[in-house]
């Protein structure tokens, strides 16, 4: 009987030792797997690091300019009305900021590109450096993504990031809105003096001033140039040009002038759009300056 009990205890001890060895092996294997970074779910690793909720505009700063022609061959109301439309477009360039950084709505907030803008007056010596001009600028505003919902992955990490980015957005939007108001006031105060019109020379002077070359150019005129054979100089390749043409004399004359200016500028690499003043609104000017299109 003692012999049998001894054999039984030995067998039990052997089984226990074997089980302990297997458990130890499994534990070491498990520790080895958990010790590798490959086993960390990538979504959990991403949630631990907040990402910016601000997005810069596709074009940081748009370089644009305009020549307004207070010509003797049209009524004074033509140039002053288009000037007022342009002023309104500048004033509304950037979205109005919220009342405070803490009042930024949870919805996504639009941004706006910056603007560097030159305005020249069409006169007898439009190309010359002494020709009247003014220059304004508006800083860009980054767009802000919406506040994540409580059920969104990473909500707890992104919520404080969104609040911090909202403060940045508020600062940018406030600076741009203030600059837009200043730019609009400066353009509104720019004197437009009726004179003979060197129209092509004004556009050429505008092109020469642009550093880098202007992306958008606006020409407000009846296109009755003092020079019977208007000549353009400068770099227009890739530029978008909007001509707001007042009717001149007859339909045939108006269309002939439109054809001359369009052909010459297109041959120099520009993309030209011609509109009548009654088809132009502040929104058209703003859209053109931002996108190069009128709608």
Which features would summarize this protein structure in a list?
single chain, 295 residues, alpha/beta, Rossmann fold, 7 helices, 8 strands, 43% helix
Molecular structure report:
This protein has 295 residues and is of the alpha/beta class. The chain has two domains: 2-37; 58-291, Rossmann fold. It is 43% helix and 15% strand. The protein has helices spanning 2-34, 42-47, 76-91, 155-188, 199-209, 251-267, 282-291, and strands at residues 54-55, 61-68, 114-121, 133-138, 143-144, 216-221, 240-245, 271-275. A six-stranded mixed sheet has the order 4-3-2-6-7-8, sandwiched between helices. A two-stranded antiparallel sheet has the order 1-5. Helix 3 packs across helix 7 (282-291). The radius of gyration is 34 Å and the shape is elongated.
CATH class category label of the largest domain? Alpha Beta
Return the structural class.
alpha/beta
Tally of individual helices:
7
> What is the topology, as strand order, of the major beta sheet?
4-3-2-6-7-8
Average pLDDT confidence is 84
Query: Into which percentage range does the β-strand content fall?
Result: 5-15%
The CATH topology assignment of the largest domain is Rossmann fold
Which term fits the overall shape?
elongated
**N- to C-terminal distance:** 104 Å
| Percentage of residues assigned to helices | 40-55%
CATH architecture of the largest domain: 3-Layer(aba) Sandwich
Order of helices and strands: HHEEHEEEHHEEHEH
Point out poorly predicted stretches. Answer: 1-8, 19-41, 43-47
Superfamily (CATH H level) name of the largest domain: von Willebrand factor, type A domain
Largest sheet: 6 strands, mixed
Indicate the radius of gyration in whole angstroms.
34 Å
Domain count: the total is 2
């Amino acid at each position: 009987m003692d012999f049998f009990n001894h054999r039984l205890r030995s067998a039990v001890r052997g089984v226990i030792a074997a089980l302990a060895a297997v458990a130890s092996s499994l534990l070491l294997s498990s520790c080895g797997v958990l010790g590798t970074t490959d086993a960390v779910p990538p979504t959990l690793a991403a949630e631990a690091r907040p990402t910016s909720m601000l997005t810069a505009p596709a074009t940081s700063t748009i370089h644009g300019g305009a020549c307004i022609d207070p010509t003797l061959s049209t009524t004074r109301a033509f140039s002053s009305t288009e000037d007022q439309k342009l002023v309104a477009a500048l004033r509304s360039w950037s979205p109005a900021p919220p009342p405070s950084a803490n009042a930024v709505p949870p919805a996504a907030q639009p941004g706006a590109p910056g603007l560097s803008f030159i305005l020249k007056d069409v006169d007898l010596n439009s190309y010359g450096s002494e020709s009247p001009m003014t220059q304004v600028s508006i800083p860009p505003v980054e767009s802000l993504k919406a506040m994540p919902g409580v059920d969104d992955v990473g909500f707890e990490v992104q919520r404080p990031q969104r609040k911090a980015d909202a403060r940045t957005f508020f600062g940018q939007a406030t600076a741009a809105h203030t600059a837009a108001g200043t730019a609009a006031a400066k353009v509104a105060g720019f004197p437009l003096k009726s004179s003979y019109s060197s129209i092509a020379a004004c556009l050429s002077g505008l092109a020469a001033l642009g550093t880098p070359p202007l992306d958008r150019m606006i020409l407000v005129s009846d296109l009755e140039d003092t020079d019977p054979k208007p000549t353009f100089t400068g770099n227009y390749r890739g530029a978008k040009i909007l001509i707001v043409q007042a009717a001149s004399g007859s339909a045939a004359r108006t269309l002939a002038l439109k054809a001359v200016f369009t052909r010459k500028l297109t041959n120099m690499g520009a993309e030209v759009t011609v509109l009548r003043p009654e088809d132009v609104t502040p929104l058209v000017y703003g859209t053109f300056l931002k996108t190069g299109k009128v709608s």
